[in-house]
Structures are given as structure tokens and as C-alpha cells.
Amino acid sequence: MSDFRLIETPLLSRAAVDRAEELRSDTAALHAGWATALLLRVNHRGQVRVADGELVFDMATSVGDAPPEGSVFLGLHDGRHVWAVRVAAMTGELGDLRMIGHRLDESGAGLVTTAVALLNWHDHAGFSAIDGAPTAPTLSGWSRISASTGHEEFPRTDSAVICLVHDGGDRVLLARQPTWPPRMFSVLAGFVEAGESLETCVVREIKEEVGLDVRDVRYLGSQPWPFPRSVMIGFSAVGDPAAALVFADGEIAEAHWFTREQVRAALVAGDWSSSSRESSDAELLLPGSISIARVMVESWAKAG
Predict the structure, then answer these.
(1) 233-234-238-240 Cα dihedral, nearest 10 degrees
(2) Which of 141, 197, 204, 235 is most buried by its number of CB atoms within 10 A?
(3) What single string gives the DSSP state of each residue in 144-195?
(4) pTM for this model (two decimals)
């Protein structure tokens, strides 16, 4: 089974957000919409408030008669404008996308994903990449302008590949990073370098991380990953289980070939969440549903 497809769209790729791009520069429309607009507060850990599995919004007017400095316009939700703002502290039930993403509907997950990615970019884009001059947000938070040259910079998104390596049969290669607890394994991933195609990146990253040559690189799907501001581009590739694995760059602590039966048992056992980890005696723990990695592994396991 050298070929398989994702059995479902990754959770964060199902975002049903009306971004209303045409409103970003429409000052009059934004002012008119502010009276009934919703405000999503996000702390520096990427956490938002939730209640009963839903996002908690504030009225935008609770922070003033106009969008405060640093706020970003996310789009429309049920016909109302939605803004996001960074805050130092919040009370109530809090959670980030890794913790609560699976509990949110497609609209809620999309709003949080967009807000976190955009605010993370602003946190590190206060000065121009060209001459170091201060920059100021414009287009309702969707760009920044250099104070010295007027050069406009747009939200940066870092491209990364994530690849499920299998043997063309009933084994898959999963790896554990040094900072992960024992038994936690996932597929391999890495950032795309300058001048590099996505497929070339897959081959290079796997070679660098585990010393394995792969072939038959095939695209599976993609998912926004705002940690801090990336997009994960999923692939599958075929490798030889008889080849020696070498962990030369220090990014991987261990990697092993697991059978389809082992992976299916791990999928039944749960995921990386603390409750599942503490109660499970499974030999293998896999990523949670928020990650495209989970969908990739599930899709491969069911393909056989």
C-alpha cells in the first residue's frame, strides 16, 4: 500500500471564516460595525476563554469607541465584525488550540487560528526587515508600514513539511524528539529552506534527521499551524526498514518502525493529552486530533 489519501480534512484546515478582506481598508464600514462587533482576547500563551466548548467573546465596545492599538480584524461571524487583541491576563477557563481546538466548531477554530497567527507576527514585526526602522500596523492589522521608507510588510508564514514515512507495506517510521516524554512518537517534520522545493525539503529533512533515503514523495494535504506562524504541508514517502537510522543533528532522540497493528492499537488508546497519557499503558502514544499528523497516521492505518 504505497499510496493513500487523507480520510478527512485536518481540523484546522476546516476553518469557515469569512475574512471580509474588502473591509480591512474601509474605515467607515469598520467604524459602523464596531458598535456590535465581537472581541476575542488572546494572551501571550495563545490562550483564549472558553465556556461549554465555545469561544467567549466580549463586546468590542468594552475597550473603547474604536479598535485599540494592536487589535486585528479577523472578519465576520454571524454577520458581526470580529476583532482580536492581545492581553496580559484573563480569568475563567482558558485554553490554547492544542488543548481546546477539538472542542471548537469550524468557525471558532478558524478565528482562533487566524488570531493567534496574526498576533504572533505582530509581536515580532515591530521593526522593518529592510532598514530596522519602526513599523506601524495598517489594513486593520493585516500589514505594517515602515516609518522611514513606507515599505509595506505582510504577515509572515513559515512553510514546513511534515511527512509520514512508510515501507510500502505494513510498517511506518515514527520518531520522538529529545524533549518529549517516553512513548510519545509522531511523523517527521522540518522547515523549508530558501530556494528549495517542498519535495526536496522532504528528502533532505528525513535524511538529516534519521539518515534515511526516501522515494515516492506524494502530497497529502496542509494545515495552518500558528506555533508561532507556520503552515504544515503534509506528504508521504517510502523508505527501507532495513536501512540503518542515524540521528546526527540531535533533533531526534529515537525512531522506530511500527507495524500497522501497533499503530491501530495506539490510535484506540488515545493521544498525547495528559488524561490519556496517565491512564494508558500503550507502548506508543500519538499526536492529538488538532494536528495534521494525527490524520496522516489514521489515514495510513486505515488504508491497509
Answers:
(1) 80
(2) 235
(3) EEETTT--EE----EEEEEEEEE-SSSEEEEEE-TTSPTTB-B-EEEEPPTT
(4) 0.92
